[in-house]
Amino acid sequence: MIQLPRIIQGGMGVGVSNWRLAQAVSKLGQLGVVSGTALDSLFVRRLADGDQGGHMRRGLDAFPFPEMAKRIWQEYFVPAGKPASAPYPNLPMHQKRAPRKLVELCMVSNFVEVFLAREGHKNPVGVNYLEKVQMPHLYSIYGAMLAGVGYVLMGAGIPLHIPGVLDAFAAQHAAEYKLQVTGASADVDMHMRLDPAEYAEGPLPVLERPKFLAIVSSNTLATTMLRRAGGRVNGLVIENPTAGGHNAPPRGKLQLNAGGEPVYGERDRVNIAELRTLGVPFWLAGGYGNAEKLREALDEGAAGVQVGTAFAFSRESGMRPDLKQRLIWQAVAGTGQVFTDPLASPTGFPFKVAQLEGTSSAFPIYQERKRVCDLGYLREPYMTPDDKIGYRCSAEPVANYVAKGGKVEDTVGRKCLCNALLANIGHPQIRDKARGESEEPPLVTVGDDLNTIAQFLTAGRTSYAAADVVASLLSRVEAEPATHSMPELSAAVA
After folding, report:
1. Quick one: pLDDT at residue 494?
2. Is residue 375 part of a domain?
3. Local structure of residue 345 (DSSP, 8 states)
4. Would 392 be classed as within a structural domain?
5. pTM of the model
6. Closest CA to 349 of 80, 156, 60
7. Contacts of residue 15, Cβ cutoff 8 Å, sequence gap at least 6
8. How many angstroms separate the Cα of 125 from the Cα of each of 24, 26, 86, 236, 356?
9. Burial 438-471, CB ≥16 within 10 A → b, else e
10. In the predicted model, what is the mean pLDDT of residues 225-230?
11. Structural domain count, the chain
12. Is 371 part of a structural domain of the chain?
C-alpha cells in the first residue's frame, strides 16, 4: 500500500509554483509540485540576474553531468546581475530538431528546480507540464527524473505518450514522443527522440520511474487515458472549469454568456461515481481550496484535492510580490474578478485571467503592446507547402501568422502568454525603448475562487504561508494519510 497525499499543490503558470513553494508543501507531507513550463528561459533569467542566493549554482553543482553544467554556467551567468535596463538573453525557440545547447538547458533547468524542491526532506516532489507545450517534453522530463522527481502531472491535452516515456527513461532506453503537426499526413514521421546516452558523461544513472497523474476534465478522457496510454497511469486529477490557468473547452458548440465567457453545461460535469469504478486514485480540482471541500472530496471517494489559487498567493510562491499583494487586497474586499477568456491563449483553450490594472487584462495595455514572438512555447507546428515543418503562433505579428497560412480571425484577442507569465514572476523581457517598446506587461491567471484566499489571513496580517494553507485544508481531516494499492493498468481497466 502506498501513502497518497491529501493535497496536491497545483503546478501553476511559469515559476509561480517554484522550488520554494514545492519544497514547503512537500516538507509538510503533501505533494509539492514545481511548474515545468518554460524552465529553461526562467533558469537563464535567474542566472542573468546574478543567481541571487546562489541556489542555481548549488543545483548545478549537483547535476550528474558536470561538463554540461559548466557550459551553461559559463554562458549565462552574469556576476552581480545584468543592468536593469538590459534585455535578457534570447534562447533558440524549440522545434522538432532542437540544437544541443537547448536540449542541455532543458535537462539542467528541470533538474535544478526539482533538486532544490527536494532539499531538506525525503518526501516526494512532483513536476507539472502542459501537454500542449510538446517540443521540450523529452528533455525536460529526463532532467526532472535525474533529480528524482516522484510524480509527473500533465494536462492541457491528452498525454497518451508520456507514461511510455517515463518507462523508457527508467529502463535506460531512448524515448520517443509523437509531435502533433497540423496538416501532416499519416505517413510522415513526427516522432521526437531522446537517447540519454548521447548526453551522459559516463554510465547512465539508474533512475526511478515517477508516478504519472493525468489531469483530465471528463469521464471520457479519464477512461481514454487508462485504456490507451502507452504505459501505466497511476492516478487522475479531475479539473472542473473553475480551476485557474487553461480550461478544457466546453463540450459541444461553443456558447458565450453575456459577459463573453464560455458556458459550461451538464455535459461538462464529471460523474464521480464512475471515477470510483476505474480502479486508480483520483484528486478533485477547481474550487476545492477549503477544508469543507477537501472533506467532501474524501467522502466521495477521492484521494484528496489539487489546490492552486490558495498556494499561488502564499509567501513562498514565485508571483511578483506587488501583484500578489494587490490581488490579496481585492480578495479581502471581496472585489476580485476573474474572467474566463475564450481568446487570450494561442492554444485555443479558455484561459482564466485576473482583472487587474497595469496588466494585459486591461484592453489599453493589451493594445499598446507590440506583437512579438520570441519565446515560442505555444507555437503550433504545421506542414508547409514544401512538406517541411513550420511554426506559427496566433499571438505573433498578424502579418507573419497569415503569411504562414494562419487565419487572420484567429489572431483576434490573442495574448502572448509566454512573455506575460515570465513578467508575472519578476523576469519581464526588456524591449527597445528607443523604438517605442517597453517592459513586457504581466497577465495573472488564477481560479474562480480568488476571493476565498482571504480565509488564510489571520487577524492583522496581509500575507500567509503555504503551511497556513495546508493546516487550514486539513483542519477537518484525520491525521492519517490516504493509502491506495496503485493497481497495474490491466487491473485498473479490466
Report:
1. 32
2. no
3. S
4. no
5. 0.94
6. 156
7. 35, 38, 39, 42, 318, 421, 422, 424, 425, 427
8. 10, 6, 35, 17, 32
9. eebbbbbbbbbbbbbbbbbbeeeeeebebebbbe
10. 91
11. 1
12. no
Count CA within 13 A, CB hemisphere, residue 72. Answer: 31
CATH number at residue 205: 3.20.20
Per the structure, the complete domain to which residue 278 belongs is given by: 2-319+452-492
Q: What is the average pLDDT score of the chain? A: 92
For cell 479558455, what's the residue?
350
Per-residue pLDDT tens for 6-24? 999 998 889 999 999 999 9
Distance between alpha carbon 379 and the CA centroid of its chain, in Å?
16
What single DSSP character describes residue 246? B
Tabulate helix, strand, coil % of the chain (nearest 5).
35, 15, 50
What is the Cα–Cα distance from 373 to 416, expressed in whole angstroms? 7
Cα 326 from Cα 333, distance rounded (Å): 11
pLDDT tens column, 85-134? 999 999 999 999 999 999 999 999 999 999 999 999 999 999 999 999 99
- Structural domain contains residue 417: no
- CA-based end-to-end distance of the chain: 20
Pairing relationship of beta strands 7-9 and 304-307 according to DSSP bridges: parallel
Provide the sign of the torsion angle of the four alpha carbons 224, 228, 230, 233, taken in this order: positive
Q: Is the pLDDT of residue 158 over 90?
A: no
pLDDT value for 244 = 75
Which residues partner with 354 through β-bridges?
338
Q: Is the pLDDT of residue 1 over 70?
A: no
